[in-house]
Amino acid sequence: MSAPIALEMSGIEKRFGATTALDGVDLQARPGEVHALIGENGAGKSTLMKVLAGALRADAGSMQLEGRAYAPTGPAHARDAGVAMIYQELTLAPHMSVADNVLLGIECGRRGIVDARATGAKVKEALAVLHHTEISPDDTVKRLSISAQQLVEVARALVADARVIILDEPTSSLTQKDTVRLFEVIHRLKERGVAVIYISHFLEEVEEISDHFTVLRDGRSVGSGRMADASLDQIIELMVGRSVEEMFPRIPHEIGGPVLALNDLAGRKTPHHANLSLRRGEILGVAGLVGAGRTEMLRAVFGLDPIVRGQVTLAGIGDITGASPSQAIRSGLGYLSENRKDEGLLLNLSIADNVTLSDYRPVSRRGWISQPKHVAKVAHLVDALRIKTSSPTARVDGLSGGNQQKVALARLLHQNADVLLLDEPTRGVDVGSKVQIYELMGQLAAQGKSILFVSSYLPELLGVADRICVMNRGELSPPQPASELSEESIMRMATLGGEEAS
Amino acid sequence: MTNSEQKRIVQRFAKRLRTLGITLSLLILVGVFTVWTGVRDIDFLATRNVQNMTGQSVIIGLGAVGMTMIIISGGIDLSAGSVMALSMVVTAFSIQAGLGLWVGALLGVLTGAASGFVNGLMITAFRLVPFIVTLGMMSMARGLAKLVAESQHINVTYPGWHDSWLALMTVNPGPKSEHLPSWLLFAPSVWVLIVVATLMALVLKKTVFGRHVFAIGSNELTARLCGVRVPLTKVFIYTLSGVFTGLAGVVFCSRQQQGDPTAALAYELDIIAAVVIGGGSLRGGEGSIFGSLVGVLIIVVLRTGLPMVNAPAPVQELLIGIIIVVAVIIDQLQHRQAD
Fold this sequence. Notes:
The structure holds 2 protein chains of 2 kinds. By secondary structure, chain A is an alpha/beta fold. Chain A contains 19 helices and 25 strands. In chain B, helix 3 runs parallel beside helix 5 (130-148) and helix 11 (267-277) crosses helix 13.
């Protein structure tokens, strides 16, 4: 514990308008150690890291870098001071060489003329430190794999002599093998005395690589310590602010016969082969990496994306392959978009319009809407879902994320959907609303509705779903009972594929 | 919660303030011109002048009713002026061809509807931007109008024209016009506009179709996701708007007693300006028929009042331009507040 401190952030506050993103966050990172920053979406991780990397300025609080006061005026200043951020979305120039990318902005040479030899040598040295000499400084970046491109970013941070390197969700698009390679690189960075701040959703991965951790919740640091001293359940508890049992209320529901069947479904890009059978009263979880084809599968079933091959059948209705969204809705399907701001909701219209848009029939006659009926119908759902608002005619953009999501769910209840396709239903939602959404899903299943539940947050999949299947690069694994799976086994299937894992 | 409630109140207040604001601006503008012309011994509010202004408002007003619906749906129609000219020419041509007034007027309206239908079809079938499609239609309709009229004015020489219903559409009631009772106050075409506008305001507010128009403009992806048949609705929007544009062309023909292929040049700009001044957002999802009509009146009052106080024509253009920019700035500020 006598190790000096590379980075100390204390009392960091950041407000956006009326919302408080960071409310007094403390974080200490030591050189040669990996410090995990853990928290749910919206907890303030990326805001905190943007403050550290100079992309945002804190409203209050102070930072020290290797004992000296540090207040970056911008990303360039932060880089010069020794802080490098590696974003999830890589920020490389794809048409330029590895060397050009590594030295972008810090080119060797004089009077604007690049010294090619010095450049090459410097980049080679950095790649050697990372033990990845197979990457040549002359390679064009766009020809490299994603994981190699990531190494180029790490090399860039090394050449800039970064003392603190932030890795934001670095494994979200890597295979298991590449993840192992990345972990080796992180060990090299540790040996060099770099302080690594590691942000990830995958708790088991975090547990493996990190020495210390800090948990953020609602913009506050709610816990920190040595990884070796904490269990995953304790960390989840810190993240969500309640115990695991309270978080995922189990509502008993009876599972019946098959309702929705996908038979070798293929979309234009993904999925390639999707076979599944969703049963009445069942919550079927779909895990997988971002971009694996889970969203695309739901969209194809609902008629939002074209189906190239395969069949969708619905019990009692028959073949609904290639139905339009309006036909899908009339057949009893309901789709909740993962992107409620861009696709799910009409932000500048009222709650009432948002809820009834998919079916105005119950509140209209011959095309004319009865406003009193409309408001009454929606008010009922607002109460049932505990949507916090002053009136059903309030605009949706004034609501919090959790309440907005409940509006999107209220639409599915309004149209009386029998099969619910829920894509990341708790993304960007506060913990209280999350629990309510899990409860609602349980209640719907108990009423005999069937739910296809796509999520990237493994604890909720394990806590809520009856069975879980995993999408890996467009291939859907056969479902397995949730009780037989762990975060680790799901991750292995999501990155390696079912056959290799077993 | 209190925060979102505050926001809601601010939003609601801002929206009302906007409608109230432009109505107030119109009244102030009328007041200014009344005093200003009064100094020069001209009565701005004289019956004749008011009738004249409302008469002029009809053509732009009918266009604005359709344009409001299009702009709410997130689109734009640059072909409105040209299509009006085409409808006007088709009406005059048909009457001269001996088809009679009713058929002539009907064909004029149908011409507008057909142009709108083609606009809507191209936008949806080929997924083209409304701006480009209607820019093309602007040129096509103008060219077609010139072809039909052989680049000349088609004068209507219908026997008994001055006593016919079509001519009387745009005649102001008064002691000189024996056919129109004085209780009518305005020319019949003004009443046509009032009826059409009221109906459309109700349709937009109270019908499923109207809510779909708002939904498409607010977020087309959401509309699709909710099962709104977006392409069909869009084609209908442009066709219906075309009906109003065609009607404006017929009214134009009634006023001028001719088909002029160069008429209504750049009217679409006045129409779009009126909608924007009236609170329509070019981002879609917002706008009102009432606001747009107040916008039309503001433009017409300026265009009528400024010459009466001897303001040179360039000053009119300048002023109207400034007003449009100010309207857009207000819209922008309001949106920033909402975010």
